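Severity: low
Component: inverse-folding endpoint
Summary: output formatting inconsistent between runs
Steps to reproduce: submit the following structure tokens with default settings.
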């Protein structure tokens, strides 16, 4: 009787060890970033322009432009000489609207403008934006 229990325990132990090895051998797939997702650092922003009260185009690096849609009207944005680009959420890179906020100077002190959506423009969209700016 004791021998049967010892053999049953040994077989059960081997079964658990095999199940554990199978779990280690087949890791879960790693989540990948969605296609077309592009990130940048706040220090790479070297220009900007507004489009109405709730859209800002951020010029990043030499040729990239990102369209930032704001949560609501941002006071004095259209008259600001400069703006600040600040990351939020503890990260250092900016990949979507929740990662960034804009800071504008105003007579009442710095105003924070929350970004809800951020999208990198295509080469064609950048060309059209530049053509529209030259036409003004």
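Observed output (run 2 of 3):
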């Amino acid at each position: 009787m004791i021998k049967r229990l010892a053999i049953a325990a040994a077989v059960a132990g081997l079964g658990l060890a095999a199940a554990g090895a199978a779990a280690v051998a087949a890791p879960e797939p790693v989540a990948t970033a969605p296609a077309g997702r592009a990130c940048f650092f706040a220090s790479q922003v070297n220009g900007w322009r507004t489009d109405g009260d709730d859209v800002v185009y951020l010029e990043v690096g030499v040729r990239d432009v990102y369209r930032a849609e704001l949560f609501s009207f941002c006071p004095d944005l259209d008259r600001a000489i400069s703006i600040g680009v600040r990351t939020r959420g503890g990260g250092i890179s900016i990949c979507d609207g929740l990662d960034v906020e804009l800071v504008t100077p105003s007579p009442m002190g710095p105003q924070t403008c929350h970004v809800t959506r951020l999208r990198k423009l295509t080469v064609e969209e950048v060309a059209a934006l530049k053509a529209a700016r030259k036409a003004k």
